[in-house]
Design brief:
By secondary structure, the chain is an alpha+beta fold. It folds into four domains: 8-71, no CATH class; 130-338, no CATH class; 354-523 and 740-869, no CATH class; 537-737, no CATH class.
Length: 871
């Protein structure tokens, strides 16, 4: 046993704990050294295995302890890194505070816009078969979301690629839900039984998907309707619609999610239509009021199928379309694109705007970029102060990786603190943001997994975007260069900061100019002569009230009220058009088909709205023949019919396949903007329909006591239609709602332009503070040579003013191009005034000059002796 532990054994034992496979290599040596005195082989093997087992257990125990030691060491290192990061953040309080403000604003705005964008893009993504569901639309010059009735039937019966086709149609808008002798507004649609095949609107435990909407006079209602009117127990009960129609409730549906483009309260079975009116799926090619969705079979390429069905109209009624001079084709819109589609209206619920989503997304991106630029600028500006720190770290052996980690930790720490502040800002501004974007977000919205994931990715992106470049540049210096503190003179330091400052004000100025352009267009639309008088016109919405002689009674009572000058009964108003797209032809001229807006009015319509007659006359109750067959048209209709002048149009006839409009022209009125300045002025044709088509009573009044007038009007309404709700509005306010999207865009741009200017200005303020400090000796020398404070301010600030000016000049061509593109979307628009660029330039330069001057004034005011001694 003397040679039990020769010199080579310590090394072998060490390797034993490092490499478990080494046990097999030394098994023979162990047997020879420790067990050569054992005579029996079995006993020798037993002892050998026992010894090896002890070695293995000891090795595992040691490795486990080493892992814990490593983890503790890693935690200590991380804690030390965070401590150093905190120390550096506190050491440069101004720098940290400026970055904190910028990053907090950026993350708050970014978080809110992330919430909004995720919500907008999530519409209709909950349907299980959504990737195979498409909305069928009719492509034409204007684009229609509705189809001719036979389109759905053709798709269902002639194309094997189609698994299912859904028919959906609006229930009459005048029909109300009746409950306990009261009428309630609910969103009601006709829907065929395929509704539940295509869409994932779950039934509650009440109802069977196979039986819902299959029989006439049956309905499915939402859970909210059940709870409101039936105390949570509606299945099998009767629901009354339109005063006299009774329906059996065969299903209760969970309330549609808010991110569904289809919003409804009641679904009426489609077979009900067959009982209520003449019906045929195979006829009615000229009746465009059916909406269809289809479900493609698995594996069908929608682009190939789109080509196959495109010419359905030409294949079935091509000759008739050629005769009419129109062209239609069938198109498919993926379900996920219906809500944000810019071309086709959504008749079943809310409609989003892809342009608005893109606009706010880019604003958030730019704001976060500017906040990151502030961080980069300030970090590189103070690099000379940190260069010695980096040099010392490298001298004592720190690696570049550890230095980068230190700087990135500072960036992450500051970003995390900024997020906490930003979260408080998000919470505080949530009501305002909801009002701005027409949403109903709550604190719960912040807790969704998608939002949290997005925020985490946002924090990581901001951390990398703001911290990586300064960390990489500063850590790349060799120790001698770092200790010399010359980073500020390199391209990465000085020149990059100039580029970034220019970019900051490029973005800021661009957003300010865009805001001015939007505001100028809104002001243009509000101040233009609309061709009618919208002030002091009160409208009663009588859509739900019965027609007939009772309306004549109401009009008589309204006209007797003091302060009321005229009362008109009509089916359309400025901002609420009549029947758009009605086909009409100049019978005697053989002209081409004209898409018109048909309106049903009475003899007082022109007086109430202040319309100006250019030729002919108004409807006159003393001329019955003209009331029966007369038409009043506008200037645009005269030109579209090819009659050249208003005088030439008098006595001409207009015909229409639908008989609306049709008759002899007795008067021509001056064009007026019935659809706002975003849209063209349609060719209008108005005939006399006293009460059969009317929806509204338009009242021209002059009274300073508007409240008292409304009370008297309401009293007259109650005398005639006491069972129906009195619903009124003012024409000027209702007409201006057409500019709602533009007003919303102006608010968004204004708010974010201010925020971006603040972020840019505080970044500039922080940067000039470092630059002014680094030029302290220069200031002392100049003051010694006789320079005034004003001259020194100009010297220190002129470089920054030049950068701001360059940013303004560079953005002008870009904003000019896209600004004109945006304005061209309006049928009537202003032009971009060059003064907008001059005013923007003046504002941004002035803000930058004030920001720079405040800081440079402190440096310029310093005692020259103290400045010369500054190191």
């Amino acid at each position: 046993m003397e040679n039990a532990f020769p010199p080579k054994w310590p090394g072998k034992l060490l390797r034993l704990f490092i490499n478990k496979d080494y046990l097999e290599e030394i098994e023979g040596d162990l047997e020879e050294v420790f067990f050569d005195d054992v005579e029996h082989l079995s006993l020798k093997k037993a002892k050998l295995h026992y010894t090896l087992g002890v070695f293995k257990l000891f090795r595992l125990s040691l490795i486990k302890n080493l892992k814990w030691i490593y983890k503790i060491g890693l935690i200590i290192t991380i804690m030390r890194t965070i401590k150093l990061a905190f120390r550096n953040l506190l050491k440069f309080k101004t720098h940290s505070g400026i970055n904190l403000i910028g990053l907090s604003l950026g993350l708050a705005v970014g978080g809110l816009i992330l919430l909004y964008v995720m919500d907008e893009l999530a519409f209709d993504n909950f349907h299980e078969k959504g990737d195979r569901v498409y909305k069928v639309v009719t492509a034409s010059e204007g684009g229609m979301e509705t189809n001719a009735w036979p389109i759905g039937y053709k798709l269902r019966t002639e194309f094997p690629e189609v698994e299912s086709v859904l028919y959906v149609k609006n229930f009459p808008s005048t029909a109300k839900l009746n409950h306990k002798d009261k009428r309630y507004d609910q969103t009601i649609f006709y829907a065929s039984q395929e509704f539940f095949d295509l869409f994932t609107f779950d039934l509650t435990t009440k109802g069977n998907r196979e039986n819902v909407l299959t029989a006439p006079y049956t309905v499915a209602i939402t859970k909210s309707v059940e709870d409101t009117y039936f105390d949570g127990d509606a299945l099998g009960k009767t629901l009354t619609l339109a005063d006299t129609l009774d329906f059996e409730i065969t299903g209760v549906i969970e309330n549609p999610p808010s991110n569904s483009h289809i919003q409804f309260d009641v679904l009426v079975s489609f077979p009900t239509i067959e009982k209520l009116q003449w019906w045929s799926y195979t006829e009615g090619w000229g009746n465009f009021n059916a909406r269809n969705y289809l479900l493609l079979k698995e594996g069908i390429d929608p682009s190939v199928f789109q080509v196959k069905i495109k010419n359905l109209y030409d294949e079935n009624i091509g000759d008739w379309l050629d005769e009419m001079g129109v062209s239609f084709s069938t198109e498919l819109i993926p379900l996920k694109d219906v809500y944000l589609n810019e071309t086709y209206y959504n008749g079943f619920g809310p409609k989003g705007s892809k342009k608005r989503v893109n606009t706010v997304t880019w604003i958030a991106i730019f704001l976060l970029i500017l906040a990151c630029i502030n961080y980069v600028n300030l970090s590189t500006a103070r690099s000379s102060y940190r260069a010695k720190e980096v040099g010392m770290k490298k001298v004592v052996g720190s690696s570049r990786t550890s230095i980068v980690a230190q700087f990135m930790t500072e960036s992450f720490l500051l970003t995390s603190i900024a997020f906490i502040v930003g979260l408080l800002l998000m919470y505080g501004s949530l009501p305002f943001f909801n009002n701005l974007m027409d949403k109903e977000y709550s604190v719960v919205s912040f807790l969704s997994l998608k939002f949290i994931t997005g925020i985490v990715l946002l924090i990581i992106a901001v951390t990398i975007g703001s911290g990586f470049y300064p960390a990489w540049i500063i850590s790349s210096l060799n120790p001698l260069h770092a200790l010399s503190g010359k980073l500020g003179q390199t391209f990465q330091g000085l020149s990059l900061r100039k580029i970034l400052i220019t970019f900051q004000f490029f973005i800021s100025s661009g957003l300010v100019i865009a805001t001015f352009i939007v505001i100028s267009q809104i002001d243009y639309m509000r101040t233009q002569d609309l061709g009618f008088e919208k002030e002091q016109v009160l409208i009663i919405n009588a859509t739900d009230a019965p027609s007939g002689s009772s309306r004549d009674v109401l009009r008589g009572q309204l006209q007797s009220i003091s302060g009321v000058h005229a009362v008109s009964h009509t089916n359309a108003l400025p901002g609420r058009p009549g029947w758009l797209g009605q086909w009409a032809y100049p019978e005697k001229e053989g002209g081409e088909q004209v898409d018109t807006e048909y309106m049903a009015i009475d003899e007082n319509y022109a007086e109430v709205l202040g319309l100006q007659f250019l030729a002919g006359r108004n409807f006159d109750v003393e001329r019955p023949s003209e009331l029966e067959a007369g038409l009043i048209i506008n200037e645009t209709c005269v030109r579209a019919m090819g009659w050249n002048t208003p005088e030439n149009a008098i006595g001409k006839e207009i015909v229409s396949p639908s008989q609306r409009p049709a008759g002899t022209v007795i008067g021509v009125v001056k064009d007026y903007h019935g659809l706002g300045l975003q849209d063209i002025i349609w060719p209008q044709a108005m005939d006399y329909r006293s009460y059969s088509y009317g929806k509204y009573f338009a009242i021209r009044y002059s009274s300073e006591q508007t409240y008292d007038l409304i009370k008297r009007i309401e009293s007259a309404w109650d005398d005639v239609y006491g069972d129906y709700e009195f619903d009124y509005f003012f024409l000027d306010e209702d007409f201006d709602r057409q500019y709602r999207e533009e007003n919303q865009l102006a608010k968004v741009l204004t708010i974010f332009a201010v925020i971006i200017l603040i972020v840019s200005s505080i970044g500039l303020f922080g940067l000039i503070s470092f630059v002014a400090l680094s030029r302290t000796k220069e200031v002392g020398i100049r003051k010694t040579m006789g320079a005034s404070i004003g001259q020194i301010i100009v010297i220190l600030s002129k470089e920054f003013m030049l950068l701001v000016l360059i940013g303004n000049l560079l953005v002008i061509p870009l904003v000019w191009h896209y600004g004109n593109e945006w304005l061209n979307d309006f049928a009537f628009h202003t032009s971009i005034n060059p003064m907008i660029f001059a005013i923007t330039m003046l504002i941004t330069v002035l803000i930058a000059f004030i920001t720079v001057s405040v800081q440079t004034y402190k440096t310029a005011k310093m005692n020259p002796v103290r400045a010369l001694r500054y190191e």
